[in-house]
Protein 1
Amino acid sequence: MQNISLRKSQASLILFLAAFLYPYFSFSQGSYIPYDRDYYHRIERYEILRGQNNPIFQTGVKPWRRDLLGKYLDSLATDPVIQSKSDVFNLGYLSQDNWEFMSSETPLSKKPFLNALYKRPGDLTYYNSDEFDIHASPVLYFNGGIETDNAQNPNRLTRGVVIRGSIDKKVGFYTYLTSSEAFFPSWVKNTAEYNGAVPGEGFWKEYNSDGYSYFSALGHVNFNLTKNIQAQIGHDRNFVGEGYRSFLLSDFSNPYMFVKLNTKVWKFQLTNIWTQMTSDVMYNRGRPTDGRYPQKWFSFHRLGFDVGKKLNLGFFESVMTDQANFNYFNPLIFFRWVEQSLGTPDKVMLGTDFKWNLYPGMQFYGQFALDEFVFGEFFGIDGKGSKRNKYGVQAGYKYINAFKISNLDLQLEFNSARPYTFQEKQDYQSYSNWRTPLTHPRGANFREFLGIIRYQPLPKLNLTLLAMHQLYGADPDATTNFGGDVLKNRLVGSPTGLFGNFIGQGIENQIIQTNLNASYMLRHNFFIDATHTFRRRTAQDLGSPESSQLIQLGLRWNFLRPDYNY
């Protein structure tokens, strides 16, 4: 107990020094932009059109800083990749959204509300000076819909506030507070009931017997320790990779407390993340009756570097442990060596990711995450289907301005994870947080194909069509473990032996889902959305396929469009 208390004291001292002493030696800084796939795609497409790696920041770790994005947008001002009316609009929209970091003036609102509010299109109110910069805006989301075979039609109301800014142009800050009441589509509700947690939110309260009520609080403070080392302390999510999904670290889980360092030197960027997460104990309907939630600790680092102008490679390693261990605070150490030298059963994963801008307008990307590996069983004939070979694989392709049609972008992606990947034999060490996976929403024991078409025929209109096919193996009951549920102990409940384990084992399920969304920007960051979703599930334990259709109409203001594609 004394060792644990000492480790916690040491960790607290590090956080204290980082938060209160280093800002006095920091450099110009901007807050981070929340990770929104639609928003980030507007930015990433221009790197792909250029056919070269982003020269300002590496895109493999998200979110990104506003000041660095401002520099990148400045470099696009006279770039030939900005051709169509939609491209010109996007550049103006992104510049206006980050106007305090643009080198050229962005226009003021033509008609401010009451001559005092919305002097800038993206800010309800703001104050900007060298000493203090702050921007505040409302957050609103309201939608309603109809789903076949759903007694309670899905709808949601979210309201809140978002505030960002900086102090002395050295310390950036961001906070996002919302309160929501929601009735989810049937498959989202099933996921929440199975995990005992709302996807992306975690803790919830019952609302009108069939709905969910929850409060979201995100925020961070960030600053530079040196010219090339940047620190962030926050409560939020992180995403690593270039794909729609991630096997390294995704945004599907609920927010968590973390400390992050980004060190960028020449063509190298080292990212270190240390977090405190909520472990996997199942309470009554996902909530504890009393007492504190059990905690676990997660350390992650990734080294990314540009190889020439077109290729970026990344190598990552992570460790999940049920006790805080000061050895894992070393930003350069090899976690597997530490874990073995300490004799601990902590869960260590490692792997790689890449992106290759093969040709202007085309990009290949992928990931490989390794949980456990035995060489002889992986390549040997007699070792096929070994339970000890656990990994996730991703391969993807992006085609921007496809077939020479302006603002028509295609994306194809394949994801696969072998049974028992991300599970662990020790309590509180699965690759999860608040009972939701830290990577792919499906967990493991699945194979998935995704196709995404994005089209912007008019500057303010965005059309997105996503088609998804999943094959996965489900467990027949709570005690049986075929390797798909990351929360289960990989040594308990398995009906298979060491060999002969293959994707889809258990009760085989197949899902086909399409999602068509049309978003029109009525004014800056104020959208009207119309969505149609078709979902069909077939399974060995179903007499006939389950099919449903969902039609929704919504308004959102400074809010990220919900993603129910799982």
Note: Residues 2-20 form the longest helix (19 residues).
Protein 2
Amino acid sequence: MASQALFRPSQLRWLFGLTTCLVLALMALGGRLYVLQVQRHEELKTLAEGLTRDATVREPWRGDIRDVNGNPLATSHPVKRLCADPSLIRNRQWDVARALAPILGRSETELADRLKITTRVDTNGVVRTNQFVDLRFEATLEQWSQVTQAMAQVRFEGDESVLPKREKRFWNTLRQRAIFGLDSQRRSYPNGQLASHVIGVVGITNYTLHDTWIRELFGVEGIEASFNKQLSGVRGIRVTEKDRSNREIVRFRGQDAEPVAGLNVVLTIDLVLQKILEAELAEAAAKFRPENAMGIVVRPRTGEILAMANSRTFDPNDLSASTVQHRRNRIITDFYEPGSTFKVVSLSAALSERVARLSDTFDCEHGSWRYGGLVLTDHEHYGNLPLEIVFAKSSNIGIAKMALRMSETNFHRYVRGFGFGSRTGIELPGEVTGRLREPKYWHKTSLTRIPIGYEIGATPLQMVMAVSAVANQGVLMQPHVVKRLVDNEGRTVVEYSPARVREAMTPAIAKQVVQAMKTVVSTNGTGMKAALENYTVAGKTGTAWKWNSTTMRYDKRYYSSFIGFFPADDPELCISIVVDDPQSGVYGGQVAAPVFRKVAEQASHYLKIAPDRGSLSLPAEDSRPPAPAMVRSFPATQASGSVRPVNIP
């Protein structure tokens, strides 16, 4: 009775209905909260972070490339990456375009179009307005100063004082933050084309990181490529939160890692010697008009490359003015038939095997000798000559007869021991192995042709390192162009020490080969034009016919070369000069030997190398070096990758 007095039936129904609605509402709210906080937790968390969190990637400073004395060969300069935030410009893009067009040298219409607001869907599925537009990648600091001054002058056409606070805030934000500059860098090469094949060049890569476009330098040639990781450093990143006005909330700053600058690469290259070498190669190229002229200066005891150059070169500051062919370092990417310079290896092998002595006499058949169905020729009609004179006068017949005293297997082993058929390991990209076939693939005449520098493919670097092994008492060294890595404080992080590869011959045998090589640069030899006034030179001339893969025969085109070292009995430098297809002059003693002499004279003066002899009167004319032998031809094969080697028979 009491309950009936308190609630009438209609009230009970109303109360029940209200309670039911509340329960259902709470259940719906709980379900919605479950969906939002449990099922869609990660999705909404990512969405919230995308709207408030900002990640800024900081580009590290790229290290320098320097010569052995610290002179900059490649360096970076600070520039500004000029950017705009269209969301802060809104519909005032024409005002901004008018202010910036004269500074950037672009039309107002083009700039205004870039500054328009657009939308995109990011990787999280969030629709965003464009808050980042590149206007110029490499604006100078002076241009950046002009931009900030021009933006400060952007004004509302009327009286700004009567504008609402919100509009005033918009104009202040437009002037101060709509255009911004990111710290960046531009790579430059202060010496132009000097040592460009060693230094290399950088390219630019673009990619996204944390939904931000990154523009970064990376090496594509030379040391810039092979030491790209060390030069690049480690990028930094700042992760922070921003308010709805796009301002950073400093107290919510999270990850804040400073970029780590790249290391500086110090080369073994000496800028002065590089200038000397390139100048002499350029003079030779002007005189003989070859396809290319190549030169290398090496310290035999350490394998350090002090200079390396091609006459066909390029300026890394202006790649548009060169072709891919000019940028290829043919000293390591191409192999060729070395001709008579390879006789240094053959003589070393014969003396090591004790199958011949320098005093042994060989019949040179008066310039023509048939063996294995093919005729081998000399440039002169020599008769019986001691081996030392055979080598000095570069008799193909005499050297071939000497080689026949060895077995194919033993001779092949010595050739491999000098580094042929494998990469030298120099710290430059694109090096090829050359070509050295196994003895089982040799022909009947191969043991008479390979010893005189045919049927074998060698790079100019392989040849100069083989001759350097003779200069280094028989020890083959690994060539290198990088001396150390240093940080910006000048502290050495990594030091690269000379690396011994193997003993190619004993010191006693090397001494005998040096004696024979000294005879080459004498009145009895083919390399008289390489002789120096105050130094004894040991060297070898080379003249090899070039194989034409189209006609499948040798053309009347040549590789003319000379490789030598001095002082002969205590060598400081080994220098190689290779002239590819000279149009005037043919033989190595005429074309390459004088270039060697000019480079050696200047290098000895610069390095203050102690003389080992007095003055020397040079003859007026050089005897002609040996003509290439008529040998059987074998088609060339591709070296590796996309690098096209010189055609070698």
Note: The two ends are 122 Å apart (CA to CA).
